Amino acid sequence: MTISTATPAPGPATGTLMAGKRGLIMGVANDRSIAWGIAKAVAAQGAELAFTYMGDALAKRVKPLAEQLGVPHVLPCDVTDEASMDAVFATLKEQWGTLDFVVHAIGFSDKNELDGLYLNTSRSNFALTMDVSCYSFTAIAQRAVPMMTNGGSLLTLSYYGAERVMPHYNVMGVAKAALEASVRYLAADLGPQGIRVNAISAGPIKTLAASGIGDFRAILKWNELNAPLKRNVTIGEVGNSALYLLSDLGSGVTGEVHHVDSGYHTVGMLAVDSAAETSALLQSLVKSEG
């Protein structure tokens, strides 16, 4: 089979597409985060940003990244705590007054329950996963919308496991499916106010969150072998798509789940050469486990 040698998108181009716009980006964990790719793309086009973080360990990673982009506001936020979320938006209200966009790149589940059967999901982890990975988007929207007096854009991140069964994803797939439904309902609610709500369903990328998914290297290789572009995507490519959805370029788009996955979601049956490569991949995994 032929693996594509096409070069992924270069670093973010500089410009003024987002000049005068202010946005909150939630979920930057390190320089491999999808949220970081988005932050770089919109900052390069003139956006003024604020970041949030959860816990002291992440603060040590996020604050140096914020300095790279000149982000003045780096705020602690626990999306399971109403008062914590209120404090974030009170600060933004005081400092900015208005808000143009929010990027929600937050999810969590007990990684021990991402292995094995979905059937064995505990009530407690189901509730926690849904709260952090799904409901938090609505909770954030409730606080952001009053600041979006001139319209705006809300963007969240999903994954193909919301649509189809994926290995080692279990209850996260259920939460992402609910998140995508939330996008549609919020889009209907907020459209009359000129506020657009969308999601990006990104292909597998080596992020901190992905480290909790078993056999992730195999998932990356599988995507590479079977996606039409024959490669995986980068955080820069997701960032460029987010720029489109957050800026006036996407002014007519809402309620959409936009796939950035090298076309993997379009594929049904494997091509003959892909099947052979996939078989070899599976055999190598069996040997490595032995």
Automatic annotation (TrEMBL):
<protein>
    <recommendedName>
        <fullName>Enoyl-[acyl-carrier-protein] reductase [NADH]</fullName>
        <ecNumber>1.3.1.9</ecNumber>
    </recommendedName>
</protein>
<dbReference type="InterPro" id="IPR036291">
    <property type="entry name" value="NAD(P)-bd_dom_sf"/>
</dbReference>
<dbReference type="InterPro" id="IPR002347">
    <property type="entry name" value="SDR_fam"/>
</dbReference>
<feature type="binding site">
    <location>
        <begin position="78"/>
        <end position="79"/>
    </location>
    <ligand>
        <name>NAD(+)</name>
    </ligand>
</feature>
<feature type="binding site">
    <location>
        <position position="176"/>
    </location>
    <ligand>
        <name>NAD(+)</name>
    </ligand>
</feature>
<feature type="binding site">
    <location>
        <begin position="33"/>
        <end position="34"/>
    </location>
    <ligand>
        <name>NAD(+)</name>
    </ligand>
</feature>
<dbReference type="GO" id="GO:0006633">
    <property type="term" value="P:fatty acid biosynthetic process"/>
</dbReference>
<keyword id="KW-0560">Oxidoreductase</keyword>
<dbReference type="InterPro" id="IPR014358">
    <property type="entry name" value="Enoyl-ACP_Rdtase_NADH"/>
</dbReference>
<keyword id="KW-0276">Fatty acid metabolism</keyword>
<feature type="active site" description="Proton acceptor">
    <location>
        <position position="169"/>
    </location>
</feature>
<keyword id="KW-0443">Lipid metabolism</keyword>
<feature type="active site" description="Proton acceptor">
    <location>
        <position position="159"/>
    </location>
</feature>
<feature type="binding site">
    <location>
        <position position="27"/>
    </location>
    <ligand>
        <name>NAD(+)</name>
    </ligand>
</feature>
<feature type="binding site">
    <location>
        <position position="106"/>
    </location>
    <ligand>
        <name>NAD(+)</name>
    </ligand>
</feature>
<comment type="pathway">
    <text>Lipid metabolism; fatty acid biosynthesis.</text>
</comment>
<dbReference type="Pfam" id="PF13561">
    <property type="entry name" value="adh_short_C2"/>
</dbReference>
<keyword id="KW-0444">Lipid biosynthesis</keyword>
<keyword id="KW-0520">NAD</keyword>
<dbReference type="GO" id="GO:0004318">
    <property type="term" value="F:enoyl-[acyl-carrier-protein] reductase (NADH) activity"/>
</dbReference>
<feature type="binding site">
    <location>
        <begin position="205"/>
        <end position="209"/>
    </location>
    <ligand>
        <name>NAD(+)</name>
    </ligand>
</feature>
<keyword id="KW-0275">Fatty acid biosynthesis</keyword>
<comment type="similarity">
    <text>Belongs to the short-chain dehydrogenases/reductases (SDR) family. FabI subfamily.</text>
</comment>
